[in-house]
């Protein structure tokens, strides 16, 4: 069972916005006038980065009047990318306070503070009223949440009837043991990777119908190539890199980046 404190401890890192601003300054950017595209190498914490965010958003039939919830929004990279591209308001929620603080500064630097609102809180007990959103997305978050049933019940509670919910997580699709560290967990105690059927069953119990399932392995090729080019194989007994471990598991078919698109029934 993953604990909220252990997950937040794993992700937190003081001064994320400052570190991003400093990296961008050294690349020659004016940090008072940024865009989600400029920020994307630093604030999209999932396989496939910004193209994957737009792929997920593309499954949600968004319009400028959509009210989109991003569950486990991190520092708000996906939320800003979608708000800027579709002109809709995006509300994010994340367990890691540092990410929410950084996300506020990054949204302001993009001039997106009116369209993007980020909250510190748990996906398992969201501070939002019933049926307050018509769309929801969740990118690479379920791997840290053991209780998929409460996660799905909360998503269903805050969505309107017929509302759409797209999950994009690393899921277990083959037999075998995960070798840690992984990008989302230093060891098994903060990891809750599950097969697609576990999400689908929990979602059905919460009142969701599965509309579509997509395997994102082919789309992850640029990520895999980047990791293989930048993370050398460990030598002399050094521990393996977390991204290289992930690539190995994707290539051997143990894990797959997987998108599930649900619609709330009733
Ligand atoms: C790999 S990051 C992905 C962040 C973001 N979705 C993105 O793609 O940039 C996983 C995020 O899930 C958040 N998270 C994990 N468990 C959570 C929970 N129970 N409630 C809310 N957020 C959670 C972590 O704090 C972290 O920001």
The strand order across the widest sheet is: 3-2-1-4-5-7-6
Gyration radius, to the nearest Å?
A: 18 Å
Distance between the termini: 31 Å
What is the molecular shape?
globular
How many strands in all? 7
Low-confidence stretches: none
Mean pLDDT: 95
Name of the CATH homologous superfamily: Vaccinia Virus protein VP39
Overview of this structure, please?
The protein is α/β, with parallel strands linked by helices and 266 residues long. It has a single domain (4-171, 191-218, 256-264), classed as Vaccinia Virus protein VP39 (Rossmann fold), CATH 3.40.50.150. The protein contains ten helices and seven strands. It has helices at 4-11, 16-26, 36-43, 49-58, 77-86, 97-109, 148-158, 196-206, 221-230, 242-251; strands at residues 67-71, 89-94, 116-120, 133-139, 159-172, 208-215, 255-264. It has a seven-stranded mixed beta sheet with strand order 3-2-1-4-5-7-6. Strand 2, helix 6 and strand 3 (116-120) form a beta-alpha-beta unit. Helix 3 (36-43) packs antiparallel against helix 5 (77-86) and helix 4 (49-58) crosses helix 5 (77-86). The chain is globular and about 55 Å long. S-adenosylmethionine (SAM) binds at residues 4, 7, 11, 44-46, 72-74, 77-78, 93-96, 99, 122-124, 139-141, 144-145, 184.
């Amino acid at each position: 069972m993953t604990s909220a404190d252990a997950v937040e401890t794993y992700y937190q890192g003081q001064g994320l916005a400052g570190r991003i601003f400093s990296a961008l300054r050294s690349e020659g950017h004016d940090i008072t006038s940024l865009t989600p595209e400029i920020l994307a190498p630093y604030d999209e914490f999932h396989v496939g980065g910004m193209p994957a965010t737009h792929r997920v958003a593309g499954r949600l039939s968004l319009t400028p009047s959509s009210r989109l919830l991003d569950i486990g929004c991190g520092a708000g990279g996906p939320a800003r990318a979608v708000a800027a591209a579709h002109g809709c308001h995006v509300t994010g929620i994340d367990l890691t306070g540092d990410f929410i603080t950084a996300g506020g500064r990054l949204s302001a630097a993009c001039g997106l503070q009116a369209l993007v609102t980020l909250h510190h809180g748990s996906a398992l007990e969201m501070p939002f009223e019933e049926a307050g959103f018509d769309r929801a997305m969740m990118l690479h978050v379920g791997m840290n949440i053991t209780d998929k049933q409460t996660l799905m019940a909360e998503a269903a509670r805050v969505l309107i009837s017929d509302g759409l919910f797209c999950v994009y997580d690393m899921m277990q699709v083959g037999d075998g043991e995960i070798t840690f560290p992984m990008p989302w967990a230093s060891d098994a105690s903060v990891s809750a990777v599950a097969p697609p059927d576990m999400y689908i069953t929990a979602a059905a119990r919460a009142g969701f119908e599965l509309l579509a399932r997509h395997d994102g392995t082919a789309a992850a090729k640029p990520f895999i190539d980047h990791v293989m080019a930048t993370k050398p194989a460990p030598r002399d007994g050094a521990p393996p890199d977390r991204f290289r471990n992930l690539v190995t598991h994707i290539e051997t078919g143990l894990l797959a980046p997987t998108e599930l698109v649900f619609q709330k029934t009733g």
